[in-house]
C-alpha cells in the first residue's frame, strides 16, 4: 500500500517522542528529519545506477537496521550516514547531528535504546518508500512541511522565523503569476528567495510553474539563507519535494549576497519570493550602506532606518529583479504607512509603479511574531502602463489553530481569484488609482482605502426606550431576505411607517419554525444541496473515476475546486468559497490519501484489507523483551480504501438489521437491570449483599453466592429427617432401618435400591428434592424473589450477548470474503457515491443548516430584544425590588 500522509505525520511525531527527555525540542527536527531524508533516499535510490543519489553498500538505511541494539549503535549510525553524505557531496549541507552524543541522547544503554528505538520507528511498513515511486514525492515532502510547522508551533517566537506557513506560501506562489509562464519560450526561468529559511516558499512557488515537454519544471530555484543548519533543512526539503537540483547557499544576503553575475552585479531573477525577518534590527551588520557596491539603496531619496531593515530587504528584491521580473514579499504592515525615511522610500517606489498589489493578511499567522503582515506584489513588466494598485483586505479570513491563526482553503482561493480577476468586492477588495494614493501622500495603509463591513446586528437606543423594531435592524439581514422576500413580510409588519418602526407578526419563539418551513428557503436548500451539487458531481465523477499513474493530484484538486466555485457561484445560502472549503478540507483530511493510493496501485486497492493484530512478547537478539504483532490473532480489520461500514451497508443490510435488533435487546435488558438496582438505592436495599465495592452495580459472583446462601436457609422437616438419616447411614444398618420405620414422613420418598436396601444416592436425591420443596424464612422471601428475577434477566442478557458475538463473527467472515471479490465498477461506486460524495454532501448540508439556524437566531434576537421598553423594564425591576423588601421585612429585617 502506498504511503498515506496521515500515517506519516503520526510516525514522525512518534519519532519525536523517542527523543523527549534529553534532546532540546528545537533539536527534535534535526534528528528526525535527517533519518526521514536518509530513509527516503535509501528506499528510492539503493541499487540504482546513474541515479540522483548514490546509495552504496555500507551507506544505506538497511545498515542502520543492522546496527540496532549494538552497544556502539550511535557510532555506527554516524559512520553510515557520514559515508552517504561524503559519497554525495552533501557533507556540511544537512543539519549537524550526532547519534553518538551522550549530552543529548544519554549514556550507555539509554543511548542504545533511544537511537535503536528511533531507527525502528522508520522501519514501520507504512513508510516503505520503495513501493511509493509513482506517487510519494508530494506526500513525503508535505509531511516534512507538516513536521516543520509542528516544530515552529512548539518552539515559539524565538525559533519559528525560518518557517513560512504553507498556506501563506501557497497564496504567494499563486499570486506572483509564475503559473502563467509561456512554455513555448525555450529558456529557463530563475526563481529566488533571498531569505529562504527551510525553503517552503521556494518550493510552493516552483510547484506552481508549468513543466517543459520532458516533464521537468521550467524554473530553476535558488535560495540564500543566513544560517547553515537551516540551509541544510532547505536542501533536504528540495530533495523530498523532488527538486534535488534546487540550489541553496548559506550566507547573509544583505551583507554577502551569493548570487553575482559575471560583471560583479547582483544576479537578476525572473521571480522572487521572500519572507524576511520582520523589522530586522541588525540588517546593517557587515554593510557600509553608503558604499554598497551593488547600489541597492541608491535612487530612493533616503536610506532605510538603521534599526529597521524592512525596506532594506524590499530594496534588495527590487535590485535583484529583471526588468520583467515579478515578486511576492511578506512584510509587516508598518512599511505601508510609517513616516520619515521609509515614507520617502515608499513614495519613490510608488512613482516607479512597480507595486501591482497589496494583500493585508490576518494577524498572528506567523510563528516568529504575532503582528499582522501583508503581501507586497511587485511586477516590473509594463509598469509604466499601470494606473494604480489593487488592494485586498483579507485580515478577517482565518481560523483559529491553537494559539495561532491560519488561512483556510477558502481564504486562499478567495484572495487568488479576487486578485487575478481584479474583482472589486465591497469591504474586501478595491483598485486604487495612483492619483488617489498621491492625494493620501503615499500612504498605502489598507484600511484607508477599504472600509470593513460591520456584519454585527445593529442596536437602536430609541427602540429600547420606546419599543418597536427598527426597519434598519430588519434590513441588516438582507442575505436572508434575498433568499425569501416573502418571509420578511411573514415575520414583520409596519407599526409606524413615518419612523420606519415594525413589529413581529408571530410570537418570538415561533420565528425559527416559520423560517424552517418557508418554501423559498426549502427550495434554495434543495437547489444548493442537490442541484448545484449534482452539477459539480458530474465533473467530479469524470475526474475521480479515471485516476491513473499519470494523474497529477494537485492539478486534480485544483480543477475540482474551480468547478465547485463555478457550480455554487449563484448560491444564496452558502458562499461558494464556503463550499470550496468543505471540498478542500476533505481533500486534506482523506481524499488526497485515497487519490495517491489509487494513482500508485489502481482501483484494485479497494480490495485491500488493513488488519490490526494483537501483540505478543518475545526476546530480541540482545535478550530484551519486546512486543511484536501476533498475526494469528486479529483484533479488528477495515478496508484500506473502502471503510467496512460502507461495505456492510451496501451488501449486508439483513445482517446489520439482525445485529441492530440484538443490540437493542441487549440495551433494553441492561436498562432494566440498571433500573432494578436504582430502585433499590438506599440503606435498606435488597441488593446490599450483591453490589460491588462502589455500590453502583451487581457482580455476578456476589449474586450467585447470595442466592445459594438464601436457598440454604430454607426450612423443611423432611429435609431435616433425611439429613439425620444420612448421618447414621454408615454407622449401623439396623439402626438406619429402625430410624426409617419411626419417621412416617419419609414414606413418600424412594430411598431403596432395586435390591430393597437403603441407598446413599437415593437419600441424597431425596434431600435435594425436599429442599426444593422447602420454604424460605419470611425475612428472605422478598430479597430472594428479586435476586432470582435479576438472575433471569442477567441470563437472558448473556444469551443475547452470545448471539450478538456469533452474529458479529459471522459478519466479519462475510465482509472479509467480500472485499477480494469486489469488481472495479463496484469499487468505484462505493468510493465515489458512498464514501466521497456522501461525506461532502453531508458536510454541505451541515453548513446550510448552520447558516439557516444562524439567521433564525438573529431574527429571534431582533424580535425579542425590543420586546420591552426601558420604562417597562424599570417598572418590573421596581416591582420586584418592593416584593423582595416586603419579604425581608416579614422575616424581621429593617433598614
Strand content: 5-15%
CATH level-4 homologous superfamily of the largest domain:
Vaccinia Virus protein VP39
**How many beta-strand elements?**
16
Low-confidence stretches: 133-137
Q: What count of helical segments does DSSP give?
A: 32
Query: Kindly, what is the distance between the CA atoms of the first and last residues, rounded to a whole number of angstroms?
Result: 82 Å
Biggest sheet, in brief?
A: 9 strands, mixed
Rg computed from alpha carbons, rounded to a whole number of angstroms: 39 Å
CATH architecture annotation of the largest domain: 3-Layer(aba) Sandwich
Task: Describe the protein's architecture and organization.
With 895 residues, the chain is α/β, with parallel strands linked by helices. It folds into 3 domains: 1-155, Ferritin (Up-down Bundle); 163-453, Rossmann fold, CATH 3.40.50; 464-547 and 554-594 and 609-642 and 826-868, no CATH class. The chain is built from 32 helices and 16 strands. A 9-stranded mixed beta sheet has the order 3-2-1-4-5-7-6-8-11, with helices on both faces. The protein has a 3-stranded antiparallel beta sheet with strand order 12-14-13. The chain is extended.
Which tags fit this structure?
extended, 16 strands, Rossmann fold, nine-stranded mixed β-sheet, three-stranded antiparallel β-sheet, 3 domains, Ferritin, 895 residues, alpha/beta
Amino acid at each position: 500500500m502506498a504511503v498515506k500522509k496521515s500515517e506519516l505525520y503520526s510516525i514522525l511525531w512518534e519519532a519525536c517522542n523517542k527523543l523527549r527527555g534529553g534532546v532540546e525540542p528545537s533539536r527534535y527536527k534535526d534528528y528526525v528529519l535527517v533519518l526521514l531524508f536518509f530513509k527516503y533516499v535509501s528506499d528510492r535510490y539503493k541499487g540504482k545506477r546513474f541515479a540522483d543519489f548514490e546509495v552504496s553498500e555500507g551507506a544505506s538505511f538497511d545498515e542502520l537496521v543492522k546496527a540496532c541494539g549494538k552497544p556502539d549503535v550511535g557510532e555506527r549510525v554516524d559512520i553510515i550516514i557520514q559515508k552517504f553524505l561524503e559519497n554525495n557531496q552533501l557533507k556540511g549541507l544537512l543539519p549537524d547531528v550526532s547519534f553518538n552524543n551522550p549530552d543529548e541522547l544519554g549514556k550507555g544503554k539509554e543511548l542504545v535504546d533511544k537511537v535503536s528505538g528511533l531507527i525502528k520507528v522508520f522501519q514501520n511498513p507504512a513508510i516503505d518508500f520503495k513501493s511509493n515511486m509513482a506517487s510519494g514525492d508530494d506526500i513525503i515532502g508535505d509531511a516534512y512541511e507538516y513536521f516543520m510547522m509542528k516544530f515552529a508551533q512548539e518552539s515559539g517566537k524565538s525559533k519559528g522565523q525560518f518557517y513560512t506557513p504553507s498556506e501563506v506560501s501557497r497564496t504567494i506562489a499563486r499570486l506572483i503569476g509564475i503559473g502563467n509562464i509561456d512554455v513555448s519560450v525555450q529558456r529557463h526561468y530563475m526563481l529566488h528567495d533571498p531569505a529562504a529559511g527551510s525553503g517552503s516558499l521556494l518550493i510552493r512557488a516552483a510547484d506552481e510553474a508549468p513543466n517543459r515537454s520532458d516533464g521537468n519544471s521550467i524554473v530553476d530555484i535558488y535560495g540564500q539563507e543566513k544560517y547553515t543548519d537551516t540551509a541544510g533543512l532547505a536542501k533536504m526539503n528540495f530533495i523530498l519535494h523532488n527538486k534535488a537540483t534546487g540550489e541553496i547557499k548559506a550566507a547573509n544576503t544583505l551583507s554577502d549576497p551569493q548570487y553575482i553575475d559575471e560583471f560583479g552585479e547582483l544576479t537578476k531573477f525572473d521571480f522572487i519570493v521572500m519572507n524576511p525577518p520582520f523589522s530586522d534590527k541588525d540588517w546593517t551588520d557587515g554593510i557600509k550602506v553608503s558604499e554598497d557596491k551593488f547600489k541597492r539603496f541608491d535612487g530612493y531619496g533616503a536610506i532605510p532606518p538603521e534599526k529597521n531593515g524592512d525596506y532594506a530587504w524590499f530594496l534588495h528584491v527590487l535590485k535583484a529583479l529583471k526588468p520583467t521580473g515579478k515578486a511576492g514579499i511578506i512584510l509587516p504592515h508598518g512599511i505601508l504607512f510609517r513616516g520619515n525615511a521609509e515614507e520617502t522610500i515608499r513614495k519613490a517606489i510608488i512613482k516607479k509603479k512597480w507595486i501591482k498589489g497589496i494583500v493585508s493578511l490576518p494577524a498572528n499567522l506567523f510563528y516568529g511574531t504575532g503582528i499582522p503582515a501583508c503581501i507586497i506584489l511587485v511586477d516590473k513588466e509594463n509598469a509604466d502602463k499601470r494606473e494604480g494598485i489593487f488592494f485586498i483586505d483579507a485580515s478577517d479570513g482565518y481560523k483559529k489553530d491553537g494559539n495561532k491563526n491560519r488561512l483556510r482553503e477558502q481564504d486562499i482561493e478567495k484572495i487568488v481569484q479576487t486578485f487575478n480577476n481584479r474583482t472589486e468586492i465591497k469591504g474586501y477588495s478595491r483598485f486604487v488609482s495612483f492619483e488617489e494614493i498621491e492625494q493620501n501622500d503615499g500612504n498605502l495603509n489598507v484600511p484607508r482605502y477599504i472600509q470593513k463591513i460591520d456584519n454585527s446586528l445593529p442596536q437602536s437606543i430609541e427602540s429600547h426606550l420606546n419599543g418597536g423594531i427598527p426597519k434598519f435592524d430588519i434590513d441588516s439581514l438582507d442575505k436572508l431576505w434575498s433568499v425569501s422576500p416573502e418571509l420578511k413580510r411573514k415575520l414583520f409588519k409596519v407599526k409606524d411607517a413615518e419612523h420606519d418602526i415594525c413589529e413581529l407578526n408571530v410570537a418570538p419563539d415561533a420565528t425559527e419554525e416559520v423560517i424552517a418551513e418557508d418554501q423559498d428557503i426549502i427550495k434554495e436548500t434543495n437547489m444548493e444541496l442537490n442541484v448545484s451539487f449534482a452539477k459539480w458531481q458530474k465533473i467530479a465523477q469524470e475526474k475521480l473515476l479515471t485516476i491513473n499513474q499519470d494523474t497529477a493530484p494537485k492539478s486534480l484538486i485544483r480543477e475540482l475546486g474551480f468547478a465547485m466555485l463555478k457550480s455554487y457561484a449563484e448560491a444564496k445560502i452558502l458562499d461558494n468559497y464556503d463550499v470550496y472549503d468543505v471540498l478542500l478540507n476533505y481533500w486534506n483530511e482523506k481524499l488526497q490519501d485515497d487519490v495517491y493510493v489509487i494513482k500508485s496501485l489502481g482501483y484494485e486497492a479497494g480490495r485491500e484489507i488493513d488488519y490490526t493484530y494483537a501483540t505478543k512478547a518475545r526476546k530480541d537478539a540482545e535478550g530484551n523483551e519486546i512486543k511484536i504483532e501476533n498475526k494469528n490473532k486479529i483484533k479488528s480489520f477495515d478496508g484500506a480504501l473502502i471503510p467496512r461500514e460502507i461495505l456492510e451497508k451496501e451488501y449486508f443490510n439483513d445482517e446489520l438489521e439482525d445485529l441492530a435488533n440484538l443490540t437493542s435487546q441487549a440495551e433494553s435488558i441492561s436498562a432494566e437491570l440498571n433500573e432494578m438496582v436504582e430502585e433499590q438505592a438506599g440503606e435498606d436495599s435488597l441488593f446490599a449483599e450483591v453490589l460491588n465495592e462502589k455500590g453502583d452495580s451487581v457482580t455476578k459472583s456476589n449474586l450467585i453466592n447470595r442466592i445459594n446462601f438464601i436457598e440454604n436457609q430454607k426450612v423443611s422437616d423432611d429435609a431435616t429427617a433425611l439429613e439425620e438419616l444420612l448421618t447414621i447411614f454408615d454407622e449401623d444398618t439396623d439402626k438406619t432401618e429402625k430410624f426409617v420405620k419411626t419417621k412416617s414422613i419419609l414414606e413418600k420418598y424412594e430411598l431403596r435400591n432395586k435390591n430393597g436396601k437403603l441407598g446413599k444416592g437415593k437419600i441424597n436425591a431425596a434431600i435435594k428434592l425436599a429442599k426444593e420443596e422447602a420454604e424460605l424464612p419470611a425475612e428472605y422471601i422478598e430479597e430472594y424473589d428479586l435476586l432470582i428475577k435479576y438472575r433471569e434477566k442477567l441470563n437472558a442478557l448473556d444469551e443475547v450477548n452470545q448471539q450478538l458475538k456469533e452474529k458479529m463473527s459471522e459478519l466479519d467472515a462475510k465482509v472479509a470474503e467480500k472485499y477480494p471479490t469486489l469488481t472495479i465498477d463496484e469499487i468505484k461506486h462505493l468510493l465515489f457515491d458512498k464514501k466521497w460524495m456522501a461525506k461532502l454532501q453531508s458536510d454541505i448540508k451541515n453548513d446550510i443548516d448552520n447558516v439557516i439556524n444562524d439567521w433564525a437566531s438573529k431574527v429571534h434576537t431582533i424580535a425579542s430584544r425590543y420586546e420591552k421598553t426601558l420604562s417597562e423594564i424599570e417598572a418590573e425591576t421596581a416591582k420586584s425590588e418592593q416584593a423582595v423588601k416586603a419579604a425581608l421585612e416579614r422575616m424581621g429585617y429593617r433598614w
